[in-house]
Write a structure and sequence with these properties.
This protein is of the alpha/beta class. It has helices spanning 15-21, 76-85, 102-110, 124-137, 157-168, 193-201, 206-214, 217-223, 267-304, 311-314, 354-370, 394-404, 426-443, 463-479, 485-496, 500-509, 514-521, 525-539, 546-561, and strands spanning 27-31, 42-46, 62-70, 90-94, 114-118, 171-175, 181-184, 228-230, 239-246, 249-257, 322-331, 375-379, 382-388, 410-420, 455-458.
Length: 569
């Protein structure tokens, strides 16, 4: 069985360099018998079941990602030894909850291949992308023909845009595949209207995206590996565009526009060079940027649940008071319907609609610009904003609401909690802000979906209603175990589709004014009187009885919370 000496023929950056460029906390070095100065040639996925039976496969200088094998699994030792015989620079396995077995650590110490563990919470896709990005970035200067943009810090997209602008002689915008702006070069001249709109909106205007898609420009761009020209017209200057590719994957695009002077003669060649140089930077943005953003959001959520140790990672100062604002975003045609608001904190993920997500994107951007120190975290259709206290509790919410109203079809219900003098008070501020949003949602409950409008309030504006919600939350578990006239009426309505409960509720809400209640129900007063009389005859629900009236207020409010089929829940 041939034995390959690890690193004998491998060339490339060291394992230490690679590990220094990936996101912190992605991988742990368990054992590195030769240290981390060993060269790395490439990164590859490894399936132990595909090894040749005669052991002649070679992995010289490779970092092997062994998907499906945990450091505590019985086969881990055999996998490591086989990779060591094949000359692998390192092997990455999933850590799991128990950590590596002693036999695995001992085997790694006797070999020459480093043993790395993927931390919980890190996906294999992210690890593969991070390692490949680091390897591409660590290639020798000029190896990819991109020496002109060498020396930039990995992920420095703004620096890349400015460097490419100097090479091309124009204004540069770097965009992701969804036409969102990732970076742009400095503004030496007044930009044309499209560049101004794109920079201010942090993305290409939607109507322009549709225009370019329908004209076939995007199809030409994404299917070409060369520079594509977008000719000037009466509105906008000429653009040269090239897609940035990593193998078959399109990472984004680089746009060069005339910036007060003609583009350089070799602008197209410079863009080709820039597209190659941009690969590790955009890959880094995808992997590191997403990982960092997720870690920051996780820290904000932990802080909102009471873990003050997460303040540093969340970017929150420990010596400042903060108020929590909660915003729920909806499609304007959907309104608040379809969301009962009773999910546990942080468990609404996946419930938001596309239009609602767009509203949250705008709100998050506005929050970042509202005041230094604002941090945000998403959860389903909700956006949580921690705002450093300054000009009162409603200021942040009302400022963000003004922005949300500019988004077509967007509906926002935003609530601001009280200022927390210490970070330990943030969970209470968050819970209060969520209560305010529930009040606003209930206020909107009687409106058709298409008529629901954005609303905002601070806790001190809705104290009575939030107090009622708190009481009902306490009563609800007990109410479900009881029985009585109101229970019987609610169950009858659910079983037969009758409207006795709605009629009694409207009558009570109108302070027992039959005319007002009938108008709200859009029925004749005599119809309402008949329903009230039948509610007394059938179920014993008599609004004139103070005890029954109180029970009806409680029971009908609770019944309105539950979807059909959850009677007594």
């Amino acid at each position: 069985m041939p034995t390959h000496e690890p690193g004998r023929h491998a060339t490339g950056p060291s394992l230490e360099q690679i590990l220094g460029l990936i996101a912190p906390g992605m991988l742990d070095v368990v054992v590195a018998p030769r240290g981390t100065a060993v060269p790395v040639a490439a990164v590859a996925l490894h399936d132990p079941g595909e090894e040749r039976e005669d052991g002649t496969w070679s992995a010289t200088g490779l970092i092997l990602l062994v998907v499906g094998v945990e450091v505590a699994s019985p086969e881990a030792v055999d996998v490591l030894r086989a990779a060591d015989r094949a000359g692998a620079a390192a092997v990455v396995m999933r850590r799991g909850g128990r950590g590596p077995r002693a036999a695995l650590v001992e085997a790694a110490g006797r070999g020459r291949t480093a043993l790395l563990a993927r931390r919980p919470g890190q996906g294999w896709t992210e690890v593969l992308g991070g390692l490949r990005t680091a390897l591409a970035y660590s290639a020798p200067p000029g190896a990819d023909g991109a020496a002109g943009v060498a020396g930039l810090r990995l992920g420095d997209l703004s620096g890349l845009a400015n460097t490419v602008a100097d090479l091309v002689g124009g204004a540069i915008t770097i965009e992701d595949p969804q036409s969102r702006v990732l970076a742009y070069s400095r503004l030496d001249h007044e930009p044309d209207p499209m560049r101004r709109l794109t920079i201010l909106g942090q993305e290409v205007p939607r109507w322009r995206v549709v225009e370019l898609r329908e004209s076939g420009f995007f199809q030409a761009l994404w299917s070409s590996e060369d520079v594509v020209r977008l000719p000037a017209d009466a509105r906008y200057a000429e653009r040269l565009v090239i897609a940035v590719r990593h193998g078959p994957e399109v990472l984004g695009s680089i746009w060069a526009a005339v910036d007060g002077r003609p583009l350089a003669e070799d602008a197209a060649a410079a863009l080709r060079t820039a597209a190659r140089a941009a690969v590790p930077h955009l890959s880094h943005h995808q992997t590191w940027g997403r990982a960092a953003a997720r870690a920051r959001e996780d820290a904000v959520h932990a802080l909102l649940k009471g873990d003050v140790r997460a303040a540093h990672e969340a970017g929150v100062a420990t010596d400042r008071p903060y108020a929590v604002m909660v915003a729920e975003a909806y499609d304007g045609h959907e309104g608040h319907h379809g969301y009962d608001g009773h999910d546990e904190y942080g468990e609404q993920a996946g419930s938001a609609l596309t239009a609602g997500q767009r509203v949250l994107d705008v709100l998050a951007l506005q929050a970042a610009a509202y005041r230094p120190g604002c941090v945000t975290a998403r959860s389903g259709r909700r956006l949580y904003v921690l705002v450093p206290a300054g000009d009162g509790e409603t200021g942040p919410a009302r400022t963000l609401l003004a922005t949300a109203r500019s988004v077509p079809r967007g509906v926002v219900l935003a609530g601001a909690g009280p200022v927390a003098a210490a970070l330990s008070g943030l969970p209470a501020s968050r819970e209060t802000a969520e209560l305010v949003v529930r009040v606003l949602r209930e206020r909107a409950g009687g409106r058709p979906a298409g008529e629901v409008v954005s609303a905002v309030a601070a806790y001190d504006e809705v104290v009575p209603e939030t107090t009622v919600l708190r009481l009902l939350d306490r009563v609800e578990p007990v109410w479900g175990s009881l029985s009585g006239p109101v229970h019987a009426m609610v169950e009858h309505d659910r079983a037969h589709g009758s409207a006795y409960g709605d009629s009694v509720a409207a009558y009570l809400d109108a302070s027992c004014d039959t005319g007002t209640a009938a108008r709200r129900l859009n029925v004749h007063p005599n119809t309402l009187r008949y329903r009230l009389r039948r509610a007394r005859e059938l179920f014993g629900v008599d609004p004139a009885d103070p005890a029954v009236r109180l029970l009806a207020e409680i029971g009908l409010r609770l019944a309105a919370r539950r979807p059909p089929g959850n009677v007594g829940r």
